[in-house]
């Protein structure tokens, strides 16, 4: 196994609890992300490359079906790291994931908070659709990759709001192209903002970024595990004011069997320099130590990650919420 000649200073000083012995570290790693054109892929590729560079490891991102599949890949060890949304994560831990019904994915551990995933709706301006109520019966709505957070929750939300639709799946990039070509009518995004596919659409055509009404937002808040969110006006050139939305938190995850010293060093690389992360993706403005509590007991903490937040963020993580290695 090759060792890095130099460890980034912050990783060296992470904690006294984890020495610099890297003899049990894997020589390479994979970060399970999602489809190209979405925030997960852009964000995940960025932090995978950052960690690989700083820790002298071979690593990179893998295109996947999103949070549900990522839980399975990390649980089984097929991917060392991944990213998930707390709704699909809770279902996976309980053995209720549509990816593998009955399998309790308890070997995927919380590593660090990422950002909130807003749920937003986009249509071409030429369609005349400027509100949820404008979506015609039988509209073809793209919900992202099958099994993704968007595909899991957004159809249910639309049904709850009384929308009649035909369901379409695909990568965000593909769906953006289909919207522009008139093959679908609406895209229902659940992704960190700005969504690359939406930003690309804005350059190429006129779009409507559709917010929820106060009544629609209240209905969704009551029915789903989400929080209030506003997509700020400066997120997209199309927006002239903040857009009312709802959101769900995302966490990076690690296979629970990975060495504590390795996960501690990875977390230190990510959490010790937020400006570097924001340069990867603007959504990383929320990737800060004080958001450690957004896990809220959904996932067991990896001991290496838990130690970092205890030492550096004053986190009070109960011992029974830390995975025992």
UniProtKB/TrEMBL annotation:
Residues 1-19 form the signal peptide. Keywords: Signal. Gene3D superfamilies: Periplasmic binding protein-like II. The keyword Signal applies. NCBIfam families: TRAP_TAXI. PANTHER family: SLL1037 PROTEIN. This is TAXI family TRAP transporter solute-binding subunit. It comes from Pontivivens ytuae.
